[in-house]
Amino acid sequence: MIAFLVRRLLQAVAVLFIVTIMVFILIHRLPGGPARAELGVQATPTAIASFNQQHGFDKSLWTQYWTWLSELLRGDLGYSFKENSTVSALLLDRLPKTALLAGVSVLVAVLLAIPLGVVQALRRNTIVDYVFTAVTFVLYSTPSFWLSLILVLVFSVNLGWVPAQAPQGSIGAVLSQPSGLVLPVATIALISVALYSRYMRSSTIDNLTQDYVRTARAKGAAISRILFRHVLRNAISPVLTLLGLSLPFILSGTLITERVFNYPGMGLLFYNAAVTQDYPVLLAVTLIVAVATVAGSVFADICYALLDPRVRYAHA
Amino acid sequence: MATMLEISDLVVDIRSGRSTVRAVDGISLTLDPGRTLGLVGESGCGKSTTGLAVLGLLPAGGKVTRGSIRIDGHEIVGLREAEARAIRGRTVGVVFQDPMTALNPTQRIGAQVAEPLLIHGMANRSAAMKQAVDLLGEVGLSRPAAQAERFPHELSGGMRQRVMIALALICGPKLLVADEPTTALDVTTQDQILQLFDSLQQSRDMSILLITHDMGVVAGHTDEVAVMYAGRLAELATTHRLFGGYRHRYTEALLESIPTLDTPRGQRLATIAGLPPNLGGQLAPCRFAPRCAHAEQVCFDVEPQWSEQGEHGYACHLPRRTDADLMTESAGAPS
Ligand SMILES: Nc1ncnc2c1ncn2[C@@H]1O[C@H](COP(=O)(O)OP(=O)(O)O)[C@@H](O)[C@H]1O
Ligand code: SF4
Ligand SMILES: [Mg+2]
Questions:
Q1: Among A37, A64, A87, where does a domain finish?
Q2: Which has the closest alpha carbon to B279: B268, B271, B287, B291?
Q3: A215 touches chain B (CB under 8 A)
């Protein structure tokens, strides 16, 4: 297991290394280079030259990459002139809030999806199954901005149960006003529930037809025991694996949702950076999302290994 | 002495989609305490379905259409699910063919073996685990306490089948259904597992319904044999009588198809030409007739009736003549 973990982490590091190279190339493929991006299209050649010299952009690509990478490793992601702040300070403020939103949403989605998938599996090809499938798929294919607008209309404008605006400020402020999280979380959770319930349904069906379930029945076990003691654990592991892999999907969901609810997370930061062409921020967020994607897939593999002793020991 | 298992005129239909298959068609047999009955026949003849009916575990779409199954005097056909559960694993244990898939891959062996005791409320957790470890030792696992902590995939096929046997026996059932328990194992292991069945039967005084397609297994490890073909019983006798003087032409064909020591290496095994019929389709009056080397017109016109002499029954129009028949014939004496 340790060897497996080490190997998997080394793989992840290799992938991340490639990611940094790609992000670095992205910076240097910008029209006119970073100088023009910072100083604007009107910048004079002298201004550009002095900017380049000041930031080391006149050095060789290799030296620049090395400098950039070592700064990156020290947590220095550059400076946003638009936000007038270091990018790392911005991310430090925004990232936890997005992690909170994404984490709670995924948790809610999975807690909905697991019982849903199990019920669908037990009632497969009945009206209950079809209705759940239809509803979750409609939600899955609904654009998130549209779904959030409907939720706002119903639950804050008409019913007035929850605010339509997310709380502003630090993560402490967000946490102290949990009602503001309800609609953003609902949006992301409802959109992604089909993703997980579908998996849960098919993996439960798959497990229910396995020989070991027949053995459990032959022991005299009731269906509830068969589900809770045998099937659930085996059926959940592909869903947890999917959890890690679905991270990019969730993060893109938060991007739109944060914009709609004006939730002060990384998604909103990214949106604003895109509008104002704030390249250091855009690239830093891209890098973070790439890191999160790689981390998600490592998480998926580790989950899989922890939950399935066959994998756990095969790699021991 | 009461019979342990009494099946009378059992009919099982399995519906899948629009078609219905009569997988078992009027089987009757009995099994006394402490005895082993071999249920033998080619694949697809309804052996497993018979075994599953005894457990009340027919596949989806399957149901007992007619007949009765009594276990230790109690009728089990028509029991409610909760009542059937109380019997499963406690009065009747089962060992399935494939020990690779029959165990839960993510649960430790000890817990799997101990579970029936917990289900039937026969022990608390720690007592159940202790019994499980003891029984794992009894079925031949060395260092059972350590093995109990392992997962199924860490054991060989033969060891897993021993675990499966322990799991089936933990509640001390009076009847064990073993459905092709050695088919998935290599020859040496097969032998060890069959010997284990023999010794467990001695020490526990239980009845075994041993389902197999292998006449060799039947010969060495059963007291009685029921030969099944296409959902019907072809022949039923004590093992001794059957091998001494089998009558049914299907039994004959099965026996001719087992390899013997003097079968020359490389020579193709004489197998029965063709396959058992599809039970959902049209069947000849003698279901074996289309494949039978001895079939005559009567076999395609009239259903052979069950005839019984002593404890030997069969249903064949043109039964094989036994040595005794031949002797009487050559002496010219009227029978
Ligand atoms: N789950 C099932 N669905 C449909 N038909 C089945 C099912 N199980 C068994 N059958 C049919 O019942 C007949 C007997 O099968 P089975 O009892 O498994 O035979 P055996 O154990 O002798 O090989 C076969 O014709 C098979 O097609
Ligand atoms: S009844 Fe006829 S066809 Fe059937 S087994 Fe006997 S001889 Fe063969
Ligand atoms: Mg079978």
A1: A87
A2: B287
A3: yes
The pLDDT value given to residue A316: 43
Closest ligand 1 atom, CA of B61?
3
b/e code B30-57 from CB counts within 10 Å (16+ = b)? bbeebbbbbbbbbebbbbbbbbbbbbbb
CA of A236 vs chain B CAs: smallest distance (Å): 12
> Each residue of B318-328: pLDDT tens digit?
999 877 777 77
β strands within B187-262, DSSP E: 207-212, 224-229, 232-238
Mutant choice from B58, B115, B118, B164 vs A, greatest count of A C-beta within 10 A: B115
Residues A127 and A239 in one domain: yes
CA of B252, nearest ligand number: 2
**Average pLDDT, stretch B52-72?**
94
Q: Say whether residue A233 is in contact with chain B using an 8 A CB cutoff.
A: yes
A219 to chain B: closest CA residue: B89
Question: Is the minimum CB–CB distance between B16 and chain A shorter than 8 Å?
Answer: no
Among all residues of chain B, which has the CA nearest to that of A304? B106
A10 in any annotated domain:
no
Q: What is the pLDDT of residues B153-182, one digit of tens each?
A: 999 999 999 999 999 999 999 999 999 999
Q: What's the average model confidence in pLDDT over A238-255?
A: 86
pLDDT on residue A39: 73
CA A11 to chain centroid, in Å, comes to 20
Is A6 contained in some domain? no
Same domain, A54 and A98: no
pTM: 0.83
Least confident of A110-114, A222-226, B1-5, B283-287: B1-5
Range of the domain at B84: 5-229
